[in-house]
């Protein structure tokens, strides 16, 4: 996804996709609210890992940052595995 420090516009600002029946919304800067019909919202920008489910049941995921973690967070990245008829598997890897 296009971040807030890119010098080009080759990537989209946001992306919707569906994998294994899971509707995902990918965006760099997290919006105040998830779009309707989304199961997972994956974002970056804060450089802080996140795994939260909001009141509407949308799961918000952020892998953190490998090179410049923020707010005392440890360097990290995430693995997301989506399989049909199985809840999303999110693993945060700390470095």
The global form is globular
- N- to C-terminal separation? 23 Å
> Beta fraction of the residues?
35-45%
Helix content: under 10%
The biggest beta sheet is recorded as: 5 strands, mixed
Put simply, the count of helices is: 0
Mean pLDDT: 90
Taking Cα atoms only, what radius of gyration do you get, to the nearest Å?
A: 13 Å
Question: What is the number of beta strands?
Answer: 7
| Low-confidence runs of at least 5 consecutive residues | none
Query: Given the helix and strand composition, which structural class is it?
Result: mainly beta
Strand order of the largest sheet: 1-2-3-5-4
Order of helices and strands: EEEEEEE
How would you describe this structure to a colleague?
With 95 residues, this protein is mostly beta strands. It is built from no helices and seven strands. Strands 1-2-3-5-4 form a five-stranded mixed sheet, with no helix packed on it. The protein has a two-stranded antiparallel ribbon with strand order 6-7. Strand 4 and strand 5 (59-62) form a beta hairpin. The protein is globular, with a radius of gyration of 13 Å. The model has no long low-confidence stretch (mean pLDDT 90).
């Amino acid at each position: 996804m296009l971040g807030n420090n890119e010098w080009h516009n080759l990537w989209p600002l946001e992306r919707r996709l569906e994998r294994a029946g899971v509707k995902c919304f990918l965006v760099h800067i997290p919006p105040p609210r998830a779009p309707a019909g989304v199961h997972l919202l994956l974002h970056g920008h804060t450089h802080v890992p996140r795994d939260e489910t909001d009141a509407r049941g949308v799961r918000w995921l952020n892998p953190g940052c490998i090179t410049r973690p923020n707010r005392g967070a440890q360097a990290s990245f995430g693995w997301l595995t989506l399989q049909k008829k199985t809840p999303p598997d999110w693993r945060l890897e700390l470095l």
